[in-house]
Amino acid sequence: MRVALLGPTTVEADDGTPVDIGGARVRMLLARLALDPGRPVPTTTLIDDLWGEQPPADASNALQSLVSRLRKVCPDVTLEPGGYRLAIAPDDVDVHRFERLRAAGRLDEALELWRGDALADVREAPFAQSAAARLDEARLSAEEERFTSGEPDIAALTAMHEKHPLRERLAGLLMRALCAQSRQSDALRVYEGVRRRLADELGVDPSHELRDVHVAALRGELTPRPSVDRLPVRLTSFVGRDEELAQITGQLGHARLVTLVGPGGAGKTRLATEVAARHPLHAKGRVWFAALAGVRAPEDLVGAVLSAFDVAFGGDPLRRGAEGMNRIAEVLGAGESLLVLDNCEHLIGAAAEFAGDLLRRVPNLRVIATSREPLAIDGESLCPVGPLSVPNGQADVSGFGSVRLFLDRANAVKPGFRLDESTVDEVRQICRRLDGMPLALELAAARLRSMTIRQITERLDDRFRLLTSGSRTALPRQRTLRAVVEWSWDLLTEEERQLARRLSVFPAGADLAAIEQVCHEDALYVLTSLVEKSIVDVTEHDEPRYRMLETIRVYAAEQLDASGEKREVVDRFRQYYRALAGRWEPLTRTTRQLEAIGMFDAEQDNIAAALRGALDDRDAALAADLVGGTFWYWLVKGDNERAELSVRDVLALGSDLPADLAASFRAMHLIMTAIPGAPETVQAADVIEDCVRTGATQKYPALSIALPMLAFLSQNRELARREVARASASEDAWARAAADWALSFILVDEGDLDGAEVARDRAYEQFMAVGDRWGSAMTLGMKAAFVSHTGDNQAAIDLYQRGLDVALELRSQDDAVQQQWRLAVEYARAGDHESAAREVAEAEQYVRDVGNDQMSLMVGYAKAEVRLRAGHAAEARELSTRFKESATISAVFGSYVAEWSAILDARIALEEGDLAEAEARAAVAIGMTSDRGDMPDLATVTELLAHIRHRQGRDSAARLLALAQVIRGRLDLGDPDVRRLVAELGEPGQLTIGKAEALRELREEAGISTG
């Protein structure tokens, strides 16, 4: 939520909806907490600030009551040991946003936040007067600061001076502006008016500063003069570094040396130039810029800095360093000064000594340095300058810094280039693969002069040849991407280069243990040196992880190729991840599941690289171990496509694969490619027997779930029960839980719903006992579906919610989306359409955030059903059409597309009163579902046909309800349509026929051949 205090106190929810805060005292409490967002405010302070010298008799209880009232509309208020805290970010409060924007020099944006007097409706609170006075003063100061840059607006200055006639700084600004337009006499009249008013109202004389302006005006010293700009020419717009601008501006307020540290191409020089250009000293001509990139020897540094000064110096400054240093100090010491030392990394020792000496000599000097490593002297404040923000699966990428920069530079070389459906995927890929590095993005955008965006993305693997179109006026090392990296590489020691090139085998970075195993047994100190020199980044997790930007890694890989040690390092890399995957794989089904998933998340790209290499080298044993060690993680995370492709690639190695692994992988591949659909019965049986014969069933716990389900899906009930029995006898507790999970499917299909519930509950208890959240979530989802059939929608909702919570904890994308869309549909079945819409919206946002297009199709299908149940048939039809158009091009859904679409379209047609269309579509669904042999789904379609027949006035509706009861074992009383149908037709009688006869009769009723 967002809180606004620069005017009347208001609150907005995340979606922009206004929040009604309540009474005056509650607004006072909110305003006081919002002045310190994210920090606890002691209760004693709150009592004093809200009631002052007249607190209520029981002040603590009165405060607690106020907090309770506030929490009803603002749940972000928490009680902590230090007091009450408003748990929002500072930027969510306009007061702090104003201060940040003001510090960054973005005064127009800062002042636009004001909607009136600060704390306008809570000024009766004891704390408010001083806070409001401070804010009002900050506002006036910001308005004054705005007048110090750009063309002076005399009309606005005059109006403001008339409103605040005793503000001497404002009067001085107006006098300067008038003099700048050669209106000296008007300026002198302003001074005289202020002097007289100060004397009459306050009995004081003008300040020394205003008197100085008066004297300068009298002497004619304020006539227009061109400002001195010693900074490099800025030929392009500045994009994407707002946070760093604000940070550096703040650092310069308390530190005299700020060093911008980051890799080559990050834009440190441009950022330093922008900070210097916006600094108040720039308008006074007190900013100097010293470019050190061309300096080769440390002894030349003083002369290079001196050359940046517009002063005469006798003799040779390169030979007379002491005199040159004295002259630099003399110029900078003449007033407040700012010096930019650009590109210090290759002279790091000399630059550090120079900066330290100069700062000691010139107390009123501030220095901005840019370097690929810190100067490491006392008083240095560091600002890391890394990549611009890059999109990571989000649908809307326009706000990311890397995208904004690329689009800006693209428009410069190709006017009219814009972000739309035809370019967004390529722009996203360019920004991600170039790590959001500004120089690389600018070089890529420059290629649009002669290439299409797609041609650029297709050549990013050859980035050093591609990105060579830099500015002819840039330094040689900034004209190509290779030159940028080579500049950094040449500054490394031989030991650093050795570790850096070996690190290139880790596409996802690595922790210290992996680096010491693969690259160097005592790597820490060299590694930290590479971090200092911006060759390697470090990120903090439970353990620090070290990674290279992709461009640096590509260059380092070239060096590894040339070193002759690649084979040895790559072999160690692959063996390390073979052992790591094997060690962690069993833990993915235990209480350490989240820890194991976190490990696989971090190492996924490294494992994938090891697997690709093993496949390329036809190392069957290594490839099989890597896939076997990672397979279950892929399934838990919902990465079924990667799992299926990896298994297929390993199987392609043929006879090189161990027999038990080959059998296990064939079983996994068959079940993944058969869903949706039913695997061929004989083929499934052969694969299962191979797993038994080779002993795979004893070695791979995943088969405890795969083999019974493979037999079940191939409609081989006898074999399915045999494999359930085998898994039930396993020594592995997880395998026994999996056996009961599979058994529940078989029992449901047979109509033994009570037995299925017992098996399902037993599976859930066992999954919980071993700590497998995935099995628990899946079982909860199954249980919810069948509880719903009893008519208890709320119990089903509770179970789906529990399953969703577990799936989100696992970060399992497919499972989370499935649980949430089923939860949405269940809310709709319960008649709570508002909650159903909310869950659909959350699911849509989730799939946008993770970038899962397949799951977005499922959410779209669920949304159609939710909207239909809310009475919006036209919208549901539009969503159904969209689903069919998108899903038919996805192999993941297979024949389910036609089946699901037929069911949905039948319901829509029924709602619209087109009974013929509803009947035709229901017949299609019955044919396809009965061919699959899915009894629960078939019962659902049978109930739908019963509804259609009833609307047609045909007597077979009651018989169809009875058939549905035979097929499933009970009616779906959680569906309000079924409940209404039962209420109108009465409870169906119990038929004595079996499922086969019920199926034959149903197909005949639907007009489908039973042959």
> Helix/strand-derived class?
mainly alpha
Average the pLDDT over all residues and give the rounded result.
85
* Biggest sheet: strand arrangement: 7-8-9-6-10
Low-confidence stretches: none
Largest sheet: 5 strands, parallel
What proportion of the residues is helical, as a percent range?
Answer: 55-70%
> Helix segment count?
49
The total count of strands amounts to 13
How much of the sequence lies in strands comes to 5-15%
The oligomeric state of the chains shown is single chain
Q: Radius of gyration, Cα only, in angstroms?
A: 36 Å
Which term fits the overall shape? globular
End-to-end C-alpha gap: 63 Å
Task: Give me a quick take on this structure.
The protein has 1011 residues and is mostly helical.
